[in-house]
Amino acid sequence: TRRAGRPVPRAPDLGRLVKDRPTPGVVTCRRGADKGRWRGGEPQRQALLRQAIVDGVEYDDLEDDVAAAIPRYGDTKRIVSHHDFDHTPPNLEEIHERLCQLDPDVVKLVTMANKPADSVKMLELVAKSKVPTVGFCMGEFGLPSRILCGKFGSPFTYASFSRERELAPGQIPFEDMQRLYRFDFVGRETKVFGVVGDPIGHSLSPLIHNRGFAHDGIDAVYLPFRVPKGEFAATLEAFNRLDVRGYSVTIPHKEEAANYARQRDEDVEACGAANTLVHDDDGWRAANTDQEAALASIRIGLSDDGEDNVPLTGRHVPVLGAGGVSRGIASALMRAGAVVTLANRTAERAAELAAEIGCRHVGWDHRGTGHPQVIVNGTSVGMHPDVDSTPFEPHWFREGTVVFDTVYNPENTLLLKQARERGCHTVSGIEMFTRQAAVQYEMFTGASAPIDVMREAIRQGISAVQL
User: Fold this and answer.
1) Which stretch of DSSP H or E encloses residue 237?
2) Which residues 6+ apart lie within 8 Å of 216 measured at CB?
3) Is the Cβ–Cβ distance between 118 and 92 less than 8 Å?
4) 365-418 residue pLDDT tens
């Protein structure tokens, strides 16, 4: 049949859908106004929700405006839900109280997070609710709340079937919820760590830290926190209410992290940037594990037996780039006694940084001159997906030189391929990335990091990204 020239939607065979289900089921039927795909009439939709109760499904999800019209029957539990796809309103408690008056077994309250602190308000509400409440925020800012709601008392959370079938903004695939974040093990005593930056969705830090926690049996979870520039301090103050115990810090917050901390290690003092924050009894302390990891990686390249204690005094090291990565490594090399020369495509930036840390600089066109013992690429040239680019001409390489590329995706960059062809010793960015994360892990947990497990995790993560 047709209505106004269009086919009349056929009612789904609910009995067939729920028959022989292998697990407890939730029946949901969302209208278009609720971002759902139901295109039939409202009486037919409500009839389906009633039928689900008659069929004995374990949970029936009822929007707050229809819950009173669909009474309780049998053993089916009622999820009374409210969604706000635009923002997290200031009257969350009022909305929650109204939902609690609609005879729920479970309240579901989901809003859009437009800033990181929105998740804090939601999770605090979940924690103090007397009615079991599934509460979290949508969107990238709200992603951590989809996992942390389990720590604050939500009986369950929601995930997408797969990466290709996201049904709500920021929804996490079921496989990641189970294997990456281990949601089933997140509880009130679970310690919380994470990485702060913007953008943050590409970060592989959650993979390697959570893999380490799982390997060591540590009750902790590590999450990606997207924090826009200019909101770092305010966001961390809000996150203190979630008892986050430590952060990895990435672009654009490394300098602000150094200023935010009450205590700073010597590497942070030297370069003015921190990639790690850890909370203890005296407040936040800042560290820069990038520098220690970079020097260890270079020493491995210089060593005949893979040791990381080779002296760097007097070694001639050109560093390509003048951004945050190059700043930290060049500063650390200078303190280790190396002879550092900076080269950057923007000559003024190289000159400024060289004057700041007290080293030489040359023009970009002269970066291949001299007789270096170590070459460090601190630029992003060659990073996925721009894998056919290199910051160094292959005919400039000299046999026996150590070439260290801080790019870790891909592991085998064009720079390293061409360096090996010329008889150079190479060290990939995976070594630095793993080592800096391992030092953070030890600061977070007080336990030795399972560095081989973490290294393998990052390799698997890179392979998945490139598929």
Assistant:
1) helix 232-239
2) 445, 447, 450
3) no
4) 999 999 999 999 999 999 989 999 999 999 999 999 999 999 999 999 999 999
- Collapsing DSSP to helix, strand or coil, 191 comes out as strand
Is 279 known to be catalytic? no
Please say whether the beta carbons of 435 and 404 come within 8 A: no
Model confidence over 296-342: pLDDT tens digits? 999 999 998 878 889 999 999 999 999 888 988 999 999 999 999 99
Q: Is 254 a catalytic residue?
A: yes
Q: Which of 96, 209, 254, 361 is catalytic?
A: 254
Q: What single string gives the DSSP state of each residue in 384-442?
A: TT-TT--SS-GGG--TT-EEEE---SSSS-HHHHHHHHTT-EEE-HHHHHHHHHHHHHH
The model's pLDDT over 40-67, given as tens digits with 9 standing for 90+, comes to 999 999 999 999 999 999 999 999 999 9
pLDDT tops 70 at residue 140: yes
Please report the sign of the dihedral spanned by the C-alpha atoms of residue 393, residue 395, residue 397, residue 400: positive
The one catalytic residue among 83, 121, 253, 425: 83
Our answer to whether residue 83 is catalytic in this structure is yes
**Catalytic annotation, pick one of 61, 118, 267, 290:** 290
The question of whether 108 is a catalytic residue gets the answer yes
